[in-house]
Amino acid sequence: MSDATKPKGRRYLLLLPLCALLVLVIMVKLKPGPQLKSDAELAPKVLVAKAEYRELEAMVSGYGRARAKETWVLVSEVSGRVIYRHPDLEKGGMLPQGTVALKIDPVDYQLKLAQAKSDLNSAKAEASRIALNKNKMQVSLGLEKNRLKILEDELKRKQGLLKQGSISRSAVDLEQANVFAQQQKVVDLETSIKLIPNDIEVAQARVQVSQSRLAEAQRALDKTVVTVPFDARITSVSAELEQVVNPQSVLIRANHIGQMQIPAQFSFSDIRMLMRQSLKGVNLNALGKFPDIRTLALKAQIKLYSGDIVHVWPGKVTRVSDTVDSQGNTIELIVEMENDWRHFDPLKRPPVLNDMFLEVNIYATKARVLTVPSRAVHGDKLYVAENGVLQVKPVAVLFERDGLAAIDTTVAGTVSEQQRVIVTDLLPALAGMMVRDVLESEL
Fold first, then answer.
1. DSSP per residue over 3-33, as a string?
2. CB atoms within 10 A of CB 300
3. 344 with 287: CB under 8 angstroms?
4. In what helix (H) or strand (E) does residue 311 lie, and over which residues does it extend?
């Protein structure tokens, strides 16, 4: 290349950056401006659900430990040596109703029973003797009265003969003495007969006393044989074979295996809500002099959680405790259940044991209530989408069940049926802000 062409090539190189800058400026000038979006397009998208009326039952949950409804504490009423003890009479053993659990040596009580029978027979014999003697004396009284009449007639006859001078005065006096003696016999018999009712009463009292002693001796003898009063599970035994037991000694403790009760603790707010739902339409004056929770249509369900397995039993609410738990400030409801030991399945349906910790759910009757999803409730507020605008509504929750909250429709300005309740969490959530609502059930 010649020296004359070198300056011209450098000038072309200087023009290239200028051309690039010019193209850049032209592109910027010709680029269209950014498109402005509407407020509706900028509004956040939210999920909504409709407020709907449903048949829902209120439910509260509490917890408590199971215990037997009936317990048996055998206190010895007699003394003596234990001569028999049932082989299954051990802690944890089960005995059916009527089983002979213990026998105490009955010899002393058999002797007392024989003596009482002898005393009763003697008292009855004495009463019979007195009754027979009364009959005998009444017959004798009749005979003596007849003899008295004969003597009186003879006295009158001799007195007539004395007036005629046919007999002596001494003969009349002798006859008069016979009459007086016979009158004394009649008086003595009448007095004895009058005293017989008192003797009869005394004899009957002796018979009654002897009968009481015989019954007492029989009861004492019967108490030497101890039978189980119901189907029982033994919890403790303190009587051994050949051991001498004394009265007032505790020998056996046992629980009824049929019925259990669970004193479950519930918060005051839960019980108040449950009562409010259960007492709807109930005439309180018709409940009687004393309120009885059994008159309410309450259902109970008892649950035992065993790992991933949940065992469930039906129950019934029977009583309300008269005390309040001072620590938890809770109220106690007594729930009863049937514990079927005869057909239990240790894996699928185990029996309920003493001190087992259980969950108790109590249900009121179903009622038609306005419901919204529980996650839509924010304290005492609900967010509602009306024509794409967020509105804040006051709310009072009656109860929650299965992810739904029952709404108190008496609260002024609260949500109404078919309104679209926002279930999405919004931060912030301001009244009047625009939202794009999408019905959750349509997704």
1. TTTHHHHHHHHHHHHHHHHHHHHHHHHHSPP
2. 21
3. no
4. strand 309-324
d(CA 80, CA 88): 22
The label of the residue with tokens 């009244």 reads: 431
Q: What whole-number distance in Å separates Cα of residue 97 and Cα of residue 232?
A: 7
pLDDT at 367: 83
> Averaged in consecutive runs of 10 residues, what is the pLDDT profile of the chain (443 residues)?
50 64 68 51 81 89 92 93 93 92 93 91 86 82 84 80 78 83 84 81 87 92 93 92 92 91 90 79 58 79 88 90 77 89 75 91 88 90 90 89 88 90 85 83 61
Render 32-75 in DSSP notation, one character per residue: PPPPPPPHHHHSPEEEEEE-EEEEEEEEEEEEEE-EES-EEEEE
Q: What is d(CA 305, CA 327) in angstroms, rounded to the nearest whole number? A: 25
Is residue 420 a contact partner of residue 384, using CB atoms and an 8 Å limit?
yes
102: which 2 tokens? Answer: 């213990």
3-class DSSP state for residue 239?
coil
Residues in CB range of 307: below 8 A, 6 or more apart: none
Cβ pair 156, 101 in contact under 8 A: no
Residue 189 near residue 144 (C-beta atoms within 8 A): yes
The single-letter DSSP state of residue 289 is S
Q: Is the pTM for the entire model greater than 0.90? A: no
Please, what sign has the CA dihedral across residues 259, 265, 268, 274? negative
Helix (H) or strand (E) holding 401: strand 397-401
Rounded to whole angstroms, how far apart are CA atoms 230 and 255? 9
Kindly give, in sequence order, each residue whose CB lies less than 8 Å from that of residue 432, ignoring residues fewer than 6 positions away: 389, 390, 391
